[in-house]
Amino acid sequence: MTPRVVEATANATLANMGVGFDILGMALAEPFDTVRAERIPEPGVQIAAIKGDEGKLSRDPTRNTAGIAAAYVLRQIGAAEGVSLSLQKGLPLASGLGSSAASAVAAAVAVNALFGEPLSRPDLLAASLEGEAAVSGRHADNVAPALFGGITLVMGLTADAIHALPIPPNLHLALATPAIAVPTAEARAVLPANVSLKAMISQTAHVALLVRALHSGDLALLGAAMEGDGVIEPARAHLMRGLPEVRAAARACGALGTVISGAGPTLCSVCESAAVAERVAVAMRALYAEMGLAASVRVTVPSVGGAAWRVV
Questions:
Q1: What gap in Å lies between CA 28 and CA 187, rounded to an integer?
Q2: Which residue of 1, 31, 55, 265 has the lowest C-beta tally within 10 Å?
Q3: What pTM does this model have?
Q4: Do domains 5-165+303-311 and 172-300 have the same CATH topology?
């Protein structure tokens, strides 16, 4: 017998991993979004409640990433019944942590589970992308790691184009999210339309170095590779207040590299232990405070398992 109420969680993600614009992403153990899905006799999707968004997200299911993804799954499985969704936002909005992707993935997983999991996990990629596209464009560098977990190389928009990469042991991450919003559309609008051959060579070399670092487990090499972005970061740096200062403070406390998470403004530092990551997080918050800017910080690690669900 299929359940009547299901709750699913999908994690924050570190898109791009510095140098891998739109092709690399890492799932983080926290924070995460939670979507509760309940069957209702009326067809279609209703959004009953949204918490943690300060009233900023639409409860119109056709304009909400979770609602769009849920509706896509219902069409895929040919469901006669509908669903009512309740969304708990654990991710801050416009933070560069994959907020829209997490909501879309959690909704797709929850609705599929609610109807007995007729779709495989790879089958849910299309629904998740549909929800993400409504806010951030049709790219899978957030959606893929949120759905599948771990570190992913994204070569396209189908499941066979998503490739899992190794997770180095002892990889810890310090995140700092200053109290400023950087919408993805704004961060994409400043990107260059063309890049030089020299820049392309350097960028691809650093992506290759990053993959090498993941396979070897060399965290120092990983941090250096992630900081090798010579195309996207320079274009977005003016949107990331205090980026050079925060990077220097993090390195002074032991960080091996600091990059913009997704479209920003969250900054992420690569660290070799939880203790180092804690020191880095404290230093990042203190520096933002000196700049008169509040910031939330946390220490986390990569998430392996991907989105999860349970009967409630």
A1: 22
A2: 1
A3: 0.95
A4: no
Q: Which CATH architecture has domain 172-300?
A: 2-Layer Sandwich (3.30)
CA 15 to chain centre: 6
Query: Using only C-alpha atoms, what is the Rg of the chain?
Result: 19
- Single-letter amino acid code for the residue at 26: M
Residues near 248 by Cβ (< 8 Å), separated by ≥ 6? none
Q: State the CATH architecture for 5-165+303-311.
A: 2-Layer Sandwich (3.30)
Say if residues 150 and 165 touch (Cβ distance below 8 Å).
yes
**What are the Cα distances from residue 1, in Å, to 83, 114, 239?**
17, 10, 51
Coil vs helix vs strand at 111: helix
- Residue-range domain boundaries for the chain: 5-165+303-311, 172-300
> Which segments of the chain are extended strands (E)?
5-15, 24-40, 45-51, 82-88, 151-154, 162-165, 172-178, 257-260, 267-271, 295-300, 308-311
Residues 114-131 have pLDDT tens digits of 999 999 999 999 999 999
Q: Catalytic site residue 2?
A: no
Residue 264 corresponds to which tokens in the numbers above? 């920003």
The pLDDT tens digits of the residues spanning 1-10 come to: 678 999 999 9
Q: For this structure, is 184 an active site residue?
A: yes
The two tokens of residue 20 are: 């891998």
**If DSSP codes are grouped into helix, strand and coil, which group holds residue 262?**
coil
Given the residues 9, 34, 184, 266, select the one marked as catalytic.
Answer: 184
Q: Which of 7, 130, 132, 272 is catalytic?
A: 132
Backbone region of residue 208 per phi and psi (left: phi > 0; alpha: psi in -120 to 50; beta: other values)? alpha
Average pLDDT over residues 84-111: 96
